[in-house]
Write a structure and sequence with these properties.
Length: 389
């Protein structure tokens, strides 16, 4: 930093007039005035006008060690337009002082690992393995359907459900018929219920609010169901209304038995969409069997568009009078056309089937030791064997 004083000595020997100093010169003079005082105290020559640093003056002669003077010499060298190289190698940081995030052995400082990007609070959560949820057993949904009325759909729905319960299964019956015959068969007046399946299908009420406990649990119907199809006509996803409602209670039961109206309208379509199996009660008469063809066509459309898993579990001959030739021929026609789909069980005519609803009970409770109760116990065993197979 002695270039200002050296410049003055040369100009003084020439004896030329001193030009007006640039403002930056004054700042440099102040810097130079402070530095020599430090050097004089450390045994330097004290000459303000010595040879240039680049002319052989070492850093040690100025009273600085190479380590202390390296930054100063570098800055001065840059000011003079030349590069000042220090003979002292740059210190290497110890291994323990390496900056965080360096990749081990990569030699690339600043590299971060993927785990460093995760917040500390979440590192433990990432390492934890999520245990798979145990599947919840869903109820087997069975719809009893035939567009022909008077074929013992309601009788079969109730008595087969009670036979399932006698075998130790949890059963729910759903009365989807606006006539409410299944509801009446359990001693409940459809005209006096405050909440029914109409509210479930139209207003999305939870189905648990319309279930009543009798011999079996039953979701009751009312005459309001007659207007449900019109009320649901503008509802999006109206065909799946019952299916969505059953999700609430599907894990609480083993079987859900749905009694459908004698038509292939929107209520029956809801039942077929929600069901996995269909049992078709068929009276052993010609007109009743004609309804099977139309039911098959409807079921095919359901499989193609709404529920590909639904299938016919079996065709059940009901109200069989084995004394007539016509009834025997009807059963033969069923077996020729549908083969193994026809149940081996037969529901024969019995007066007990008409008497039991008057008492508000199933035939298994009304006459537990009678033949009528035995017909449905045999049917329950056959269905359960199919289930296990």
């Amino acid at each position: 930093m002695g270039f200002l004083s050296r410049k003055r000595s040369k100009s003084a020997s020439v004896a030329e007039p001193v030009e007006e100093q640039h403002p930056i010169v004054e700042e440099l003079e102040e810097m130079e005035a402070a530095v020599p005082e430090r050097r004089d105290g450390e045994g330097s020559s004290g000459s303000a006008a010595g040879p240039d640093v680049g002319e052989g003056v070492s850093d040690s002669s100025l009273g600085f060690s190479p380590e202390e003077d390296a930054p100063f010499a570098e800055s001065e060298g840059r000011k003079r337009g030349r590069r000042v190289e220090s003979d002292t190698p740059s210190p290497t940081p110890p291994a323990g002082d390496a900056p965080e995030g360096d990749a081990e052995g990569s030699g690339e400082p600043g590299r971060m690992k993927a785990e460093d990007l995760i917040a500390p609070a979440r590192r433990g959560a990432v390492a934890e393995e999520v245990e798979p949820e145990q599947p919840v057993k869903q109820a087997e949904v069975i719809a009893f359907a035939n567009q022909k009325g008077g074929v013992a759909k309601t009788t079969t729905t109730l008595n087969l459900a009670v036979a399932f319960k006698e075998s130790g299964y949890r059963v729910l019956c759903i009365d989807l018929d606006p006539q409410g015959n299944l509801t009446m068969s359990q001693g409940i007046d459809p005209d006096k219920v405050e909440k029914s399946l109409y509210d479930v299908l139209v207003h999305d009420m939870p189905i648990s609010e319309v279930i009543q406990q009798r011999e079996i649990d039953i979701a009751v119907a009312s005459i309001d169901l007659a207007g449900a199809e019109i009320a649901m006509s503008t509802k999006i996803g109206r065909e799946r209304s019952l299916e969505k409602a059953l999700k609430e209670v599907s894990g609480d039961y083993d079987f859900v038995c749905i009694d459908t109206p004698p038509s292939l309208g929107l209520l029956t379509i809801n039942a077929l969409t929600a069901a996995s199996k269909v049992i078709v009660p068929v009276q052993c008469e010609y007109l009743s069997m004609r309804g099977l063809v139309q039911l098959q066509n409807t079921l095919k459309m359901i499989q193609e568009n709404l529920n590909p898993d639904v299938k016919i579990e079996g065709i059940l001959p009901t109200m069989l009078d084995s004394r007539t030739v016509h009834a025997k021929e009807a059963v033969e026609i069923l077996e020729e056309n549908f083969g193994d789909l026809v149940f081996k069980s037969r529901i024969r005519k019995a007066i007990k089937f008409a008497e039991a609803p008057v008492k508000g009970s199933s035939v298994l409770k009304y006459d537990p030791e009678g033949n009528a109760a035995g017909y449905y116990r045999d049917l329950a065993k056959e269905v359960l064997e199919h289930e296990s197979a």
